[in-house]
Structures are given as C-alpha cells and as structure tokens.
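Example for tutorial group B:
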C-alpha cells in the first residue's frame, strides 16, 4: 500500500538543543573532533550504531536523553563552544583566499566528480578518487576558496563486501535513506523540488538536486529516482560504477550535462569548471552548447571560450581505467547534440579520439577532456610522465616531456584523518598554524621537539584501539558466516597490541600486488613468528565486482590466514571503509604499499599514515617516488623503499626480486629498528625516524598545498582567461576561433627550407649561431614562433634534456619566406650535442603553444 501523501518527521529537540540540527547538517563535523565528541557525549553507542550519522542519531535518540542534555550545563557549554566555532568558520573573515586574493571576487569554481568521500555515512564513494575529492572540498572550505561541488547521489552507493566460507568476495547493496542523511533537498520558490531535465534517446530524464553542506562549500548531488522517470531511468543513480557501458554513459551524461544544468537551475554561474577525472567530461560539451545558444556563437567560437575555463585532472595510470564508448553508443546519445551546434558527426567523434581519422577508434572521455580543457594535470610527478607518454598520440611529433599535461601532486586533509591524540600533540608542540598553514615547513620542523615518550605512548594507545577494533570486526565477520563458536572465540585472541603491526589496505587491483609479501610463505611465517621480534599484518580492501583476479588475491590472503602458523599474526578485515581506514592509518606502525611501478597514479593512504606517526614501506611509485626525489639522501631516513624502481618485462620475475627485497628490509632494518629499545622501553631510533617523516612529508603532502596550487596555477588564470575571451560580446573568442581555423588550414604549407650553422664543434658554454629560412605560405610571422631546441644527443641520435629558445626574425624574403636566427648554448659538459629547429603556432590568448598536430620540425 503506497501512501497518498508523505511528510518528513524531525526530532523534537528542546529549545536549548536546536543548534544540534545545524551542526548535524554541516559536514564540517567530519573533520572537527570537538563536534564529534559532542555527539558522542550525547549517546556514544548510538553514534556507533548509526554509522557516525548525527542526523539519523537525532531521529532515533530517546527523548529523555535530549531532556537530560538540555539541563546539563557542561553539555550546553560544549554545544555553545562548538556552535561558535562553526559560526566563525562560516563567516570566513580571515581565510587564505580572502587575505591573498581578495581581488578575485568574481571567481567561482565548479568541481565535478563521480564520487565524493566526505564521511562514511554518506556512501557516495568507492575509494581513493572519492576520498581525494572529499578532501579537496574540505581544504577549499578551510582556505575560503569560492567553490561548489557537483556529483551524483547514489541510492545504493558502492557495495558492501563480505566473504564466503571459501574466502571469495561477495557484494551486497544497501539502500540509502536520503531523509536521514545530512542532506537538504533543493526547493524552488513554488515550494516544489528543483528538477533538471536531460535529453536521452526518445525521452527526457529528470533529476532532483540535493545539497550537502561541507563547511563553506555546497556540494550538489543529482538523484534520478523520481516518479517522472521510467523505471530504468530511476536506476541511473542507483549504484556507483555499477552496470554496463550503457549505464556508465547514462550516469556520465547525468553528471556532466545534468550537473551543468543543475547549477543553472540554482542560478549559480561558475567561471571555472574542474573535471576531476573524465567521468564528468560531457559538461564541456554542455558548456559549449549553452554558449552557442545564449550568445549566438559558432561551435568553434564557443569552444575557445569554454576551453579557457576548463580544468581537467586525470587520476589513472592504467589504460584500462579510462572510459571508452563505442561510436554507435555515442551516436545514439549525441547525434542531436552535434546537429544542435552544427558540427559534422565525424568532427564530433574526433573530439574523443587520439587519431581523429580512425573510424574504428572508440570515443574516450579522457581524450575529450584533454582536447577541451585548457589546463590538464596528472596527480604526481611520475604520473605526469606516464600520462604524457600515454596520450602522446594527441600531440604527434612533440617530445613527451613537452606534452601539455602537468602535475599537481595529491595530498590529504589532515584533520579528517589524524587521531584526536595527534591533534592534541600537534596543537601543543607545533602550535595552531599546523591547522591553518600546514604548507609552512617551519611548522613541521618543530615535530623534532615533540617528547619521544608522549609521541610513542600515544601511538601505543592507538595500536591497542586498532587491535580491539580488528577483533570486534573479525568476530562480526565470523558470526555473519555462522562460524563455529570455537573459531569465534579464537578470533578474540588474534593479534597482539604490543607487536610490530603492518597495515595494507586499498583497492585490490592486481598491479597493487597485495600478495607480494606472501610470495614466500615459509619465510614470512618465520618473520611473523619470531619469538623475540614478532610481526603481524592487517589487510583490508575491496576488489571491483567484475575483477576476479583481484578477488583471487583476497581469497589467497584469507586462506593463508587460516593456517596455524598465520592465524594469530595475519588477518583480513571485511568491508574496508573510511572508518576502518582511520583505525588503520592511526594505529599501525608501518604502512605497506607495493604497487608495480608505474601503475600507481599517486596514492594517498600513506600520507594519512605519515601524519599519524606511522612509517611508510613502499615501492617507488606514485607519491613515494616523489618522496625519493625530494628527500636528500644525506638527510635522516624517513621510511623504507622496496627496490630501485627498475622496470621489468617479466612481471613474475619482477615480483620475485622485489618480494626478496621486501623480506630483506623487514629482517635487516624494519623489525630490528622497532624492537631496539632503551632501558626506558622506548624505540628511540624508530621514534626519531617518525619525527623525520613528519618533518619531511607533512608540509607538502596535504590538500591545503594542493588546493592552493590548483587555485594559483589553474583556477585564477582560467577565470582571467574566460573573462578576457567572453568580454565585449566574446570578441576575443571569435578572433581566436578565426585564427585557429586559419592556422589549421594553412599549417601543412609550412616548410623549414634551409638551416645554416657555425661549425662542427664548440667549447663548453660557447654560443652556436644558427639561421633558418622558413616558408609560411599564407601565414604571417606573428602567427608562429620559430624555436631553436638544443641539448645533448644520446646514442640513438635523439636530443635529451632539451632546452628551447625563440629565434629572432631577421628579414622577410620573397615568396613568403622569412629568415630567422638564434643561438644554441653548448652545455656545461663536453660530448656530442646538437640542435633542432621547429615552428609552433602563437597567439596571445593560447594557454599553450602545443596544439594537437600543429608542429613542424626541420627535416621532418
């Protein structure tokens, strides 16, 4: 029986406690320990039972408890302090952005992502990408950056993991009740929900808009589970990363196009759009279409304006991790779009293809993003190199190091991940600036002054909590499987709170090599069961539902853990989530990370561990590769690195070599350092390394630094660029579009006809003069830049470590030929060196001279 009318029931809070509702609905509580403690103080057991959801908690709490709290002066004082702190945060009178960029008052960034990991009770994230997006919003709030988030509100979110008796991962999906989550349904002036509509083949799909308040940042989430939609369309926002490619493209249309329209419906007009991974790339097309419709522009004019305001971040170093759609599927969904902007269908498909003329190539969302966005970046230094190589087909004949994909290294939002004890310790010995200005290295230098006894005793308490949590979780797992009572009792005695504890928790993809440490079970058993220096390992993580290879890794771990020699020293915790992650990164002694280089784009869990006084043991991939480059080899050690980053053709051989290296590190360094105790029982060498790690890593690997970098390198330049191109009726955009069309048509005419130089040898540091005659055809000298590129020549005859300088126009000769000259500087070392000459397009409104396909080399 369906009701004829629905209404929302809210808790009956005493007047003194009404502020609890506001606190519960602003997700700033997710990174504010005093607010969390306030709700725990109200009912700690209910806080845990509601999965840390204060809105649901307030709807379930007994009225007598509320009345008691309303007459508790200590509780009311706590409430007043927490509420005042939130008011101060929301006022934002002294934020970094306000103090340093008050002249950018018109800037508004829209940050689009398929997942956001704000807190565990809001299940709209799967892993690292979502956690990074959530931390991005939190730091934007702390820094006062004008930003809104846009995503999808999944009815079931990501799956709940449980294991079969055989250790095989199983998945279940649980419905979210949006009315008991910290969400607000956006309502129009007519008192009805704001609805956006998106065109699909033969129908329109509607979506509601929910708002999550993340400190100062509004996060808008679209939900297609509305009565106006057909049953299949109501399921579009059902599961995160669920379904086939047809479901994936529908989700990404709702995210990109629906998300763009949602902001319009709410009268929000961003000046910059940030696409966090390619899932939201369709927003670039919607932005172009709206500029065409609203301003009478051509597609190419609108594209120039739109591109200037688009930022794209790629997070994937593995080719299979990018979205590809069959041309037929694209035609079904976007043929009307192409007609609406007067774009020929082959030209439309070319936007998503590395080779525009290959009719068999699938449409790639990453390629679309790279073609449309003026600013593109990877998420670590090494990932930048991998990405430039992976997508070099977009820029043929351009050296990989010059492909315009930079990098902004990921970070983490410390206050979301550190324990209350670490927060107190940092407040006491680092001062309040570690919260407000964690980028300042001088703040973290003070970590060396923290008392070793306090630091170590606090960490021991966190390890004790982790062991207690792991035992509870194991007992729950076994009871869920109806295990024998003897097995359940044994689970209550696994692990030891005094033993060196290693944590490994992440998505179970094969390249992450979760089982590398298990490669030699006999040797591992000796390490774990050493009577004088025992070790224990806690694993957690989910495999993608369709990744049987990843599931097999989990099965191997679970079955090994059942063997007598591993039963007390090795455990796997089911259903890895944000709450489990906090216990692990706060409580283990060593964070293990063993991806096969260069498969890890960045990784952030090790950064969270480092901020909690945990040491990293990692292969040199992702962020840890950058640590190795940034860390002075002569400086005190900060962790351990497995292998030297060599690349092998034979993965099995590589895994064998690096597994042996891992065992050697454990036996010869990690374990002895941990158990080397003074008479006072302190592992002083270990604690010294922890302090070194905090000092060396925390100032850089945080999202405050990351978001500042995005703001100053991308957001503000994009805001200025769009303002310039859109001003005066988009006059500059029209000029740029006309220029690009003219350049593209005339480019094949360009020839570098002759090159002269000043001899066959030079002394170190000496200038080598070079001249070139360049035929430009119908183009003018101001349309191009002629560059002299020089550097050492490797044994294959290629320039390496190339430097480029602009050649000077000397004279115009007959027939469209121009004479240029320049100087190549012989390097600081002797040996074979050389130079090359190239022609690139040039325009004052281009963010980069490296346009796909537009480059001419001498002799090319």
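The residue assignment follows.
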């Amino acid at each position: 029986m369906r009701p004829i009318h629905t209404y929302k029931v809210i808790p009956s809070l005493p007047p003194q406690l009404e502020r609890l509702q506001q606190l519960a609905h602003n997700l700033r509580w997710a990174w504010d320990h005093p607010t969390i403690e306030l709700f725990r103080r109200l009912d700690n057991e209910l806080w845990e039972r509601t999965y840390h959801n204060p809105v649901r908690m307030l709807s379930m709490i007994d009225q007598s408890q509320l009345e008691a709290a309303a007459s508790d002066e200590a509780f009311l004082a706590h409430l007043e302090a927490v509420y005042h702190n939130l008011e101060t945060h929301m006022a934002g009178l002294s934020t970094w952005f306000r103090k340093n960029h008050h002249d950018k008052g018109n800037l508004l960034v829209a940050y689009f992502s398929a997942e956001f990991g704000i807190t565990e009770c809001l299940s709209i994230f799967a892993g690292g990408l979502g956690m990074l997006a959530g931390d991005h919003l939190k730091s934007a709030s702390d820094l006062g950056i004008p930003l809104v988030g846009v995503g999808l509100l999944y009815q079931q979110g990501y799956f709940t993991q449980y294991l079969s008796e055989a250790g095989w991962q199983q998945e279940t999906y649980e419905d979210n009740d949006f009315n008991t989550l910290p969400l607000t349904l956006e309502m129009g002036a007519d008192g009805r929900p704001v609805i956006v509509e998106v065109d699909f083949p033969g129908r329109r799909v509607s979506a509601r808009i929910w708002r999550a308040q993340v400190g100062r940042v509004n996060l808008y989430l679209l939900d297609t589970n509305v009565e106006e939609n057909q049953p299949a369309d109501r399921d579009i926002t059902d599961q995160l990363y669920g379904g086939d490619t047809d479901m994936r493209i529908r989700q990404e249309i709702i995210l990109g196009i629906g998300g763009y329209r949602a902001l319009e419906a709410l009268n929000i007009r961003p000046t910059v759009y940030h696409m966090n991974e390619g899932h939201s790339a369709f927003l670039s097309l919607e932005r172009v279409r709206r500029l065409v419709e609203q301003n009478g522009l051509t597609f190419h004019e609108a594209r120039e304006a739109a591109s200037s305001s688009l930022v794209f971040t790629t997070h994937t170093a593995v080719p299979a991790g990018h979205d590809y759609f069959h041309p037929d599927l694209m035609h079904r969904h976007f043929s009307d779009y192409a007609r609406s902007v007067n774009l020929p269908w082959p030209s439309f498909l070319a936007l998503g293809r590395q080779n525009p003329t290959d009719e068999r190539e699938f449409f790639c969302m990453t390629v679309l993003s790279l073609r449309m966005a003026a600013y593109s970046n990877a998420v670590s230094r090494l990932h930048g190199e991998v990405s430039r190589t992976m997508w070099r087909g977009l820029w043929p004949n351009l050296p990989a190091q010059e492909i315009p994909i930079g990098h902004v290294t990921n970070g983490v939002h410390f206050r979301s991940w550190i324990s209350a004890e670490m927060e107190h310790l940092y407040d006491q010995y680092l001062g309040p600036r570690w919260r407000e200005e964690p980028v300042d290295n001088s703040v973290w230098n003070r970590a060396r002054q923290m008392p070793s006894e306090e630091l170590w005793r606090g960490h021991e308490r966190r390890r004790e909590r982790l062991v207690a949590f792991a035992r509870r979780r194991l007992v729950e797992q076994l009871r869920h499987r109806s295990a024998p009572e003897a097995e359940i009792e044994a689970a209550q005695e696994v692990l030891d709170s005094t033993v060196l504890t290693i944590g490994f928790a992440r998505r179970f993809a094969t390249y992450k090599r979760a089982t590398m440490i298990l490669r030699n079970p006999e040797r591992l058993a000796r390490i774990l069961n050493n009577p004088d220096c025992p070790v224990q390992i806690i694993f957690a993580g989910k495999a993608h539902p369709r990744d049987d290879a990843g599931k097999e890794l989990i099965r191997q771990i679970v079955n090994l853990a059942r063997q007598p020699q591993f039963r007390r020293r090795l455990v796997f915790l089911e259903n890895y989530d944000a709450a489990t992650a906090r216990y692990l990164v706060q409580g283990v002694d060593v964070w293990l990370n063993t991806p096969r280089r260069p498969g890890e784009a960045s990784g952030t869990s090790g950064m969270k561990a480092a901020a909690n006084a945990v040491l990293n043991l990692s292969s040199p991939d992702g962020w840890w590769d950058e640590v190795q480059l940034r860390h002075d080899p002569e400086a005190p050690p900060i962790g351990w690195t497995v292998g030297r980053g060599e690349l092998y053709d034979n993965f099995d051989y590589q895994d064998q070599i690096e597994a042996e290296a891992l065992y050697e590190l454990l036996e010869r360094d990690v374990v002895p350092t941990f158990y080397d105790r003074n008479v006072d029982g302190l592992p002083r060498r270990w604690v010294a390394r922890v302090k070194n790690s905090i000092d060396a890593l925390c100032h850089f690997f945080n999202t405050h630094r990351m978001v500042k970098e995005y703001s100053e390198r991308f957001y503000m330049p994009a805001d200025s660029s769009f303002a310039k191109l859109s001003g005066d009726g988009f006059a500059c955009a029209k000029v740029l579009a006309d220029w690009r069309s003219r350049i593209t048509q005339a480019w094949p005419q360009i020839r570098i006809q002759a090159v002269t130089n000043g001899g066959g040898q030079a002394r170190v540091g000496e200038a080598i003069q070079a001249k070139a005659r360049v035929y430009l055809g119908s183009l003018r000298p101001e349309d191009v830049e002629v560059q002299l590129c020089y550097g050492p020549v490797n044994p294959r005859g290629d320039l390496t470590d190339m430097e480029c300088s602009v050649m000077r126009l000397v004279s115009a000769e007959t027939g469209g030929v121009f004479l240029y000259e320049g100087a190549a500087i012989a390097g600081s070392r002797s040996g074979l060196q050389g130079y090359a000459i190239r022609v690139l397009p040039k325009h004052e409104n281009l963010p980069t001279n490296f346009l796909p396909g537009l480059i001419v080399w001498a002799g090319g």
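The radius of gyration is 29 Å. Compare this with the pattern of hydrophobic and polar residues in the output above.
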